Amino acid sequence: MSEHIVKSHNKSLLLYHLVLPVKYRRKVFGKAVKDTLKEVCIGISDRYEIGFIEIGVDEDHVHLLIQGVPTQSVEQNVRIIKSITAKHIC
Fold it and tell me: 51-57 and 14-21: which strand pairing?
């Protein structure tokens, strides 16, 4: 399981389960795309304060269990993840 994030004035454990479908539910996630997606997510977690706990990939959608910090909204985290992964997968 994940750890609490401890900052100078707070302690938090924010977990988000995101389901991100592909446009028109096309079946595009093959072996190569799955590997690329996982590598990109590791790069995102290194640059931003987004921790990827679980990454699950089906043929037409992705399940992400992420851990965030209170200073970033869910919408900001999703925007970061979708924009960076879309650039690397396409």
Answer: unpaired
> To which H or E segment does residue 64 belong?
strand 61-68
Q: Give which of 66, 87, 59 is closest to 5, Cα–Cα.
A: 66
> What is the distance between the alpha carbons of residues 60 and 23, in angstroms, rounded to a whole number?
9
Token code pair at residue 2? 């994940």
Render pLDDT for 53-69 as a digit per residue (tens, 0 to 9): 999 999 889 999 999 99
Tokens of 42: 């590791």
Domains of the chain: 5-89 (3.30.70.1290)
Residue-level pLDDT at 39 = 94
Please give the structure tokens belonging to residue 19.
Answer: 């389901």
Q: At what angle do helices 31-47 and 74-89 cross, to 10 degrees?
A: 130
Residue owning tokens 């910090």: 69
Q: pLDDT, tens digit, for every residue of 7-22?
A: 888 898 999 999 999 8
